[in-house]
Hints:
Helices cover 38% and strands 18% of the residues. It has 285 residues and is an alpha/beta fold.
Amino acid sequence: xxxxxxxxxxxxxxxxxxxxxxxxxxxxxxxxxxxxxxxxxxxxxxxxxxxxxxxxxxxxxxxxxxxxxxxxxxxxxxxxxxxxxxxxxxxxxxxxxxxxxxxxxxxxxxxxxxxxxxxxxxxxxxxxxxxxxxxxxxxxxxxxxxxxxxxxxxxxxxxxxxxxxxxxxxxxxxxxxxxxxxxxxxxxxxxxxxxxxxxxxxxxxxxxxxxxxxxxxxxxxxxxxxxxxxxxxxxxxxxxxxxxxxxxxxxxxxxxxxxxxxxxxxxxxxxxxxxxxxxxxxxxx
Length: 285
């Protein structure tokens, strides 16, 4: 009996990485999946990574590991470049002859247009977004490889604070008032849906650039109201604000993604976040 090909998933303790592992038996049964955590393998120790890669001989590498907190990237640009760009370049080179999928972000756009398609020019306004643009260029230099741009991912992380919904809930539990913009738009998506979409894309050997986000453009304020209504027992406190009066690091007002290219390849519709929440009232969010 021929054994199944092996897939590596980096960042397996992160939000999307963990959902890729959880959903693999259902949506990627053709693969044996190995999740890599920092404790198991330091991706910055490239000698060890190469040795492990040559031993395992994976046929697919899904690269989720990254420094994703935008403020930390702003404060530590050298570390952010090392983790988000250099590490990606090394892994992409190692995986040059196999399938490789890299996670990017809607924040590669400046947000002055919205409804971005894959061919729209990027214009990142933060260190994190600039890192991701560099990573995309490296990965897309290989026609075997794939870039997935996604938006805010919701779910339950192992650490309890990776997902945006977890960060909101922690604020509500601490009785903090959240100030949320009415004119900053994203397309939130459950991480379990992102994972399913990625497994379908790699299963079809789809290469190139794809947008994977929720089917609904929502403001930060809209998102806050949806989640506050889910946890009335916490007595959530939110107040509205506008980017017009905001003073601080640059923010992208509307990075909504047009996902039509991806949708044509999927066996299911990318859901509206509000409808998904209504249909899953007991899911831990």
